[in-house]
Amino acid sequence: MGIISGYAWTLPAVIAVGWVLSWWGARWIRWGVLATGVIVSVLVFLTGFHVSSPPLSPHSGCTREQVQCMDGRPIPWLEAGVFGFACCVLLLIVTTVAEIVMWLENRSSVE
Questions:
Q1: Which of the two ends of the chain, N or C, has the fewest CB atoms closer than 10 A to its terminal CB?
Q2: Kind and range of the H or E run holding 87
Q3: HSE on the CB side for 47, CA within 13 Å?
Q4: DSSP category for residue 8
Q5: Cα angle: 72, vertex 73, 76; to 5 degrees
Q6: Which H or E run contains 29?
């Protein structure tokens, strides 16, 4: 397993596919996909803080505060939340620029 788990790319991929497909629909669908993506990303990130770790045996000599004894279960959740949020921010910028360009084109064609 690499530094970044494969599951971390699932949420951004779903957001990106939904965003691309939303361009064939109404304008509000694009913004709805991005808003939903942000909400889901934040919820996934917060879920990472509540993922329970297995109990430590008393003979392990570890405490929860020691880095070498930490459990890696919440890491894919945290990664997916951060990458999903970053994907939404990037697509928000692209969508805003595209909307401005389309508005300027429509305005110049009317004149």
A1: C
A2: helix 75-110
A3: 13
A4: G
A5: 95
A6: helix 27-50
Does this model's pTM top 0.90? no
- Which structure tokens are listed for 87? 């994907």
The predicted pLDDT at position 74 comes to 79
- How many CA atoms are closer than 13 Å to the CA of 33, on its beta-carbon side? 24
Which residue is associated with the tokens 């930490």? 70
CA distance 29 to 94: 15
Q: Could you say which DSSP state residue 111 is in?
A: -
Do 29 and 10 touch, CB atoms closer than 8 A? Answer: no
pLDDT in tens, 6-27: 778 889 999 999 999 998 988 8
Tokens of 76: 């894919």
Q: Which residues contact 10 (CB under 8 A, 6 or more apart)?
A: 80
